[in-house]
Design brief:
With 346 residues, the chain is of the alpha+beta class. Helix content is 38%, strand content 19%. The chain is built from 11 helices and 9 strands. The protein has a 7-stranded mixed β-sheet with strand order 1-4-5-9-8-7-6, with helices on both faces. A two-stranded antiparallel sheet has the order 2-3. It is elongated, with a radius of gyration of 41 Å. Bound molecules: 3,4-dihydroxyphenylalanine. The site of 3,4-dihydroxyphenylalanine (DAH) has 11 residues, from strand 8 and strand 9. The site of 3,4-dihydroxyphenylalanine has 11 residues, from strand 8 and strand 9.
Length: 346
Amino acid sequence: MTLAELDALHERSAGEVAAAADAAALEQVRVRYLGRNGLIPAIVKQMKDVPPAERPEFGKRVQAWRTALETALAEQQQAFAAAAPVDTPAFDHTLPGRWQSLGKMHPVSRVIEETAAIFARLGFTVADGPDIETRFNNFTALNTPAHHPSMDASDTFWLTDDLLLRTQTSPVQIRMMTQHRPPVRIITPGRTYRRDTTDATHSANFHQVEGLYVDTKPVSLADLKSTLAHFAKAMMGPDAGVRFRPHFFPFTEPSVEVDFSCHVCGGKGCRVCKMSGWIEIAGAGIVDPRVYEHVNRARGDDAYDPSKVNGFAFGFGVERVAMIKYGIPDIRWLYESDIRFLSQLA
Ligand code: DAH
């Protein structure tokens, strides 16, 4: 092959690159010249037949051709890629818009948030405690007698001799007083656990909100009542009222059970309040001095001297309030995550 023939081939290949109509045609050109069985490798193989005087020049030109061809192919390839239409799905402008459905807060979370907001206006802050508690915080310091039935393995999820899944949020009272000097004014929402068989009104895992107000200033049962009366109105509506019934809890003396007036019938009597006009909501009372004694012993000081501090405590079930407030007949509905139910409570 002569130099002139080589140049002619170079020119022809450049023309073919320019003439290629699409990427597939371009690829054919590449294979024809640069492929393993292409023209350029074949020419390189036959270099030995070129007269020795011409060989260096011949080699240089083959190399220049190869480089020029590769560059031209790459440029043309890029041009095709840039011009290719972007593959977007057809958009139908006549379709109606799609609604974005917003998430909604779960009724249990809503009652907790509302409770926190109501008590925040009365100066209560939210405190937190762990689900796994000690025997001391959950029972002993709350003045529960050593052999009280609530400590039975049939009632309480014991993890070890000393650790358990808390049966109430009351132990957070102990944690708070152990860590902070009076005054203490907190509510503590959280999960609680009991070995209850699940039915329409019971669950082995539910939520409580505990409240505690302890001060060196006098705190009375009347303060407790007015606080809970305010809570009842803010949570259930302006016509709601409260009544106290005497009761017993180990950690309060006196102790009361707290009823809200039935918000469905306004107190006249209906199915929801079982014709009584009242719905049992909370336990409460004046903190028993024995609780302060346990706290002082745990603290190692006299910050809660029973002759100098006094206060009230209360606790209620969140699911119960949610069920009454929203008219939910079965506690299990609150845990089934059925969107048909939950979305009705927006
Ligand atoms: N912890 C009690 C329960 O689970 C509720 C309770 C009653 C809390 C009286 C209190 C209280 O703080 O003073 O049944």
